[in-house]
Design a protein that fits this description.
Elements: H1 2-47, H2 56-63, H3 65-77, H4 79-108, H5 111-137, E1 154-155, E2 162-163, E3 168-170, E4 175-177, E5 182-184, E6 189-191, H6 196-216, H7 218-236, E7 241-243, E8 249-251, H8 255-258, H9 273-309, H10 313-328, H11 341-349, H12 356-361
Antiparallel strand pairs: 1-2, 3-4, 5-6, 7-8
Length: about 400
């Protein structure tokens, strides 16, 4: 009897010990897991300051990464819509010019002015259409995906492939682009080595065309605006109503009207529906062309400044940071791709002889740029900088 009671007590003690041991193991596992999470969090926080190049810009970029992702995907989805919008707006301006402005020019201008308007207008339109098509349809250039002996400056963190000099990753196209300048949503394409000239030429000739339309239709815009204001006053001014210069409306009913006498007011000559549409089209043309000329003109000047310095939009920011870093060390930074203003333009436009200014700049030309965008030691320039940019 005692032996049975002793065995039962031993079994109960063993069960209690196992239960306590399981609880301790569970608690130890939970504590170990919390310690791992805390260590991982500290490691992630310290990784933001792992070297001297990390600054507030890196932290801000990390915090705004979801916003960048959203903007990239919206730009990718609406790229086709932006291209369609460019085609529709440009076509509407061309139709208004042909239907409204050109007949008036043919009837009122002298023969010399008529020939000049016809020649310049069609030449400008041809350059706009050609360069926009080439900029949108030409591939900007991609580095090879296979292993090669081409020198590279770094490894792309997204593609995990070597990046040649002046190559950057486009988050919208999800590819590395040779000599990338930026991703243009109005082209639904990246601006890179092989279509950079087409993009700049399109901006330049589109600005010139908008300025031309704005100046040519300035007097017509003033007349149309006055006509539209007169049409508005016709709506407000009825029999027995007068609109003052301050916009106040007074009744001008004569006393004879109250005594039963008949009162007549001669209405101004009305505008036909065709004339109203004509005036509104002229206003639409002038406002749209003037707005595009200001916005696109500023962008064209900015890119012209970058071309004169031998830089792209991305390299502009990189070189500025590198310049400040070198100044702190007491050194001078020089862009190795800057060959002087005139040589930079010759390299960018592909001008080798004097005749090329006509055949390759003032006329549509599909000649490729210098080189393949992978190496940058082939330019036929006698003067070169020897210091490299990072």
């Amino acid at each position: 009897m005692k032996s049975r009671a002793h065995l039962f007590a031993s079994a109960m003690r063993l069960f209690v010990r196992c239960f306590r041991l399981g609880r301790r193991r569970g608690q130890n596992k939970l504590i170990r897991r919390l310690r791992e999470l805390w260590s991982y969090g500290r490691l992630c926080l310290k990784s933001l300051f792992y070297n001297s190049f990390t600054n507030s810009d890196t932290i801000i970029d990390s915090l705004f990464e979801p916003i960048y992702w959203l903007v990239d995907h919206i730009t990718r989805w609406f790229g086709v819509a932006f291209v369609f919008l460019v085609i529709v707006l440009t076509s509407s301006i061309v139709l208004i010019v042909y239907i409204c402005l050109l007949p008036l020019i043919l009837h009122t201008y002298s023969l010399a002015w008529i020939l000049w308007h016809i020649f310049y207008g069609h030449w400008n339109l041809l350059m706009i259409v050609f360069h926009y098509y080439k900029a949108a349809r030409t591939s900007p250039g991609y580095p090879p995906q296979i292993k090669s002996d081409i020198p590279s400056v770094s490894i792309c963190r997204k593609c995990i492939t070597p990046k040649p000099a002046r190559t950057h990753h486009c988050s919208i196209c999800n590819r590395c682009i040779l000599k990338m300048d930026h991703h243009c949503p109005w082209l639904n394409n990246c601006v890179g080595h092989f279509n950079h000239r087409y993009f700049f030429s399109f901006c330049l000739f589109m600005t010139m065309g908008c300025v031309y339309c704005s100046i040519s239709s300035r007097n017509m815009f003033i007349d149309a605006y006055n006509a539209v204001e007169q049409m508005k006053s016709e709506v407000l001014e009825g029999p027995g109503v007068m609109v003052t210069e301050t916009g106040l409306i007074f009744s001008i009913l004569p006393l004879g009207f109250l005594s039963g006498q008949t009162y007549y007011q001669t209405p101004p000559p009305p505008y036909t529906s065709k004339e109203r549409i004509f005036h509104k089209c002229v206003i639409y043309l002038w406002v749209l062309c003037s707005s595009v000329a200001l916005a696109l003109g500023g962008l064209t000047l900015w890119h012209a400044m970058l071309i004169s310095r031998g830089e792209t939009s991305i390299e502009r920011h990189i070189n500025r940071k590198e310049q400040h870093r070198m100044q702190k060390k007491g050194k001078t930074f020089r862009n190795p791709f800057n060959y002087g203003r005139l040589h930079n333009w010759k390299v960018f436009l592909g001008v080798e002889t004097r005749s090329h200014w006509l055949t390759r700049v003032l006329l549509p030309s599909g000649h490729p740029p210098y080189g393949d965008g992978l190496t940058w030691t082939h330019y036929p320039i006698s003067t070169r900088n020897t210091m490299l940019a990072i």
